Amino acid sequence: MTHASYFNGDTPNPVPVYVTPSDDGAQIILSRPNADDVIWPASDIRTVSDLPSGIDAVLRLTSDPVARLYVQDAGTLPRLPHLNRRAPPKGRGRLAIWAAGAVAAVALQIGILIPLMADQLANFIPPRAERALGEATFEQIRGALGSDTLGPLRVCENPEGRAALNEMAATFAPSIPDNGEISVFVLNHPMINAFALPGGYVVFFRGLIDAAETPEEVAAVFAHELGHVVSRDPTRHALRSAGSIGVLGLLFGDFAGGAVVLFLTERLIDANYTQAAEEAADTFAHVVLEDAEISPAALGDMFERLRKKHGDSDGTLSHFLSHPTLSDRIEKARDAAPEDGDWSPILTEQQWADLQGICG
């Protein structure tokens, strides 16, 4: 039995009490003379660090901010399992805990749950719906990169250049699944980039064709993007981005209209796929290029030229320079090209000149 002084917080006078544990040890009983017992749950009792002279321990309840129990000899107390544990936070501390939990929940949804759901959902989207998603996204990108005065970004359609591009696409047609449909476009923009969209859309910016020195380098990038199309990487990426927009919209309430278009456009143009997806697309390109009698080293040559000219981290090249490292991608592309390979030009010199002038 422990002798102690009990302050209930309502009156300044202490009340002498006897402290005994309950039969199951889950509570302590404060027995007061001429008054009802006070019951304290043992798991809610904590110590107070500020001790007055002559007192061995001061106890409090996590659920009562003012009541105190002054004990002269702490060694006589019954077992209290959480005596030195920090109490659950209150006020700002509790708010901070809830805020941190909310941030963690959002991060879990955007970083893990949404990608998992997107990967599964992509398998159930019919080709027709996927095609419609790609077409709508393509028009959104044209509008976002266009201008108020000139309208959507212009699609380059010089007839001779278009014919050369179709010739390149036809070379890779045997590598596309039977039910696949590929649409390739060039947009009149100086950005050095190409990307794939859901539903078989492959889009080049004029800047990439201008930067290439041979048609085989353009073809190598084309083959890489086809690798993403065949694996349906753009559809998964679009679903992930749309899911992220939805979560952020619920939080901030302002992801609507033009903001959605701009955000989704940026995410798809500069899509950084996973390392496994990038490696798979590169490997697909190596095989497709060799089957078309084009050296897989052309992909490495394109990357090497871009790296020398722009470095490894230029924003306009973020799509091509994403992980795995560019050096590894260049090395693997060149290793994939047999030394005794019999390579053929994918376009004639005239067709290459036509493709370079596709934007007029």
Runs in which pLDDT lies below 50 for 5 or more consecutive residues are 244-259
What is the topology, as strand order, of the major beta sheet?
4-3-2-1-7-6-5
Question: In total, how many beta strands?
Answer: 10
N-to-C span: 97 Å
Question: Helicity, in percent?
Answer: 40-55%
Structural class: alpha+beta
State the order of secondary-structure elements, H for helix, E for strand. Answer: EEEEEEEHHHEEEHHHHHHHH
Mean pLDDT: 80
- Overall geometry comes to rod-shaped
Q: Biggest β-sheet: count, sense, barrel? A: 7 strands, antiparallel
Number of helices: 11
Q: Whole-number radius of gyration?
A: 34 Å
What can you see in these coordinates?
The protein is of the alpha+beta class. The chain has eleven helices and ten strands. The protein has helices at residues 92-122, 127-145, 159-171, 206-211, 215-231, 233-252, 258-269, 275-291, 297-310, 326-335, 349-356, and strands spanning 2-7, 15-21, 27-31, 38-41, 45-47, 57-61, 64-71, 183-187, 194-197, 201-205. The chain has a seven-stranded antiparallel β-sheet, with no helix packed on it. It has a three-stranded mixed β-sheet with strand order 8-10-9. Strand 3 and strand 4 form a beta hairpin. Helix 1 runs antiparallel to helix 6 (233-252), helix 5 crosses helix 8 (275-291) and helix 5 packs across helix 9. The longest helix has 31 residues, at 92-122. The protein is rod-shaped, with a radius of gyration of 34 Å. The N and C termini lie far apart (97 Å). The model is unreliable at 244-259 (pLDDT under 50).
